[in-house]
Write a structure and sequence with these properties.
With 291 residues, this protein is of the alpha+beta class. The protein has helices spanning 2-10, 12-36, 45-56, 62-81, 83-107, 114-134, 142-152, 158-177, 181-205, 217-228, 255-268; strands at 207-213, 233-238, 245-253, 273-279.
Length: 291
């Protein structure tokens, strides 16, 4: 706790958050501006709406349009999401608009096949959003609408809300750009973006769950706590063949820590039985927060 307060006081957390926002916003801007803007399709969400408006009003930059469209959404979401999260979101929106309107135009725009543009736009935008989401913030728009709608109607699935909102914008691209390919590329962008977000988000939180059966579980648990600063849980079990009572030591850890746990178990009890499982996320003290 003291270390956390010290880091906040020194501003390290804020610097880290802004750095992550900048990196994520840069990748997101590459996806939307460099690849998607010139490919005649509209991605889902506020960015897709901004591309459509920019198609008619070329002097209005995409980032600024997104920022303006998000203002009423942020105001409407305040009641459901609270001020702290929305303040972080507003900061991310400003950073994202800067990279979209100032940095990305210096790079130019992709002039290749629209199909490739949709794929790479989704990949870069998804990677950027995954970094931003992992930073406990978002780029506003559909994300805030989904979270607010879920507060009011918890029975609605995220998929239902997303399809309803993004689908309307993607189909609007058909009318604006005048061909069915705009819809196909819009849905392709969304599919790739979602896939990349899921893979990277699981990558941020995924780890290993070690289940250790040994006669020396207390010694192993003590070494894990001292060497890795990681706690473990002892469960009572009974062997189905021998009928002997045994303890199973369970420890959730990172992938790198699992290697060290293997070394510890081998040193203390070479005859131990170790089962290693993958987990996608763990929430609670020492891991991801519940919110």
């Amino acid at each position: 706790m003291k270390e956390r307060i010290r880091e906040n006081f020194c501003g390290r957390n804020l610097i880290k958050e802004i750095t992550m926002d900048c990196f994520g916003s840069f990748l997101y801007a590459l996806g939307i501006y460099y690849f998607a803007k010139n490919a005649d399709f509209a991605p889902g969400g506020i960015s897709g709406a901004a591309i459509i408006i920019n198609h008619f009003f070329h002097t209005l930059p995409i980032g600024t349009i997104s920022l303006v469209l998000n203002i009423p959404i942020i105001i409407g979401s305040f009641r459901y999401l609270g001020g702290g999260y929305l303040i972080r979101t507003a900061r991310t929106l400003l950073i994202s608009a800067f990279f979209m309107d100032v940095v990305a135009p210096q790079i130019g725009m992709y002039e290749g096949m629209p199909l490739m543009a949709a794929i790479y736009a989704g990949a870069f935008a998804g990677a950027g959003l995954a970094i931003i989401y992992n930073n406990q913030t978002c780029t506003g728009g559909t994300d805030l609408i989904i979270m607010s709608a879920r507060k009011v109607k918890p029975h609605l699935s995220i998929g239902q809300i997303t399809i309803m909102i993004d689908g309307m914008i993607i189909f609007a691209g058909w009318l604006v750009f005048g061909n069915i390919d705009a819809v196909l590329f819009g849905f392709l962008f969304t599919a790739v973006e979602t896939l990349v977000i899921d893979r990277l988000m699981f990558g941020f939180t995924a780890g290993k769950l070690a289940m250790i059966i040994s006669d020396y579980n207390m010694e192993i648990a003590k070494r894990i706590g001292e060497q890795l600063d990681r706690s473990s849980t002892r469960l009572l079990a009974k062997g189905s063949y021998t009928g002997v009572d045994k303890e199973v030591l369970i420890c959730a850890c990172s992938r790198s820590q699992q290697v060290e746990i293997n070394h510890i178990v081998r040193e203390i009890d070479p005859g131990a039985f170790v089962i290693v499982l993958d987990y996608s996320e763990v929430r609670g003290y020492g891991f991801q927060p519940f919110d």
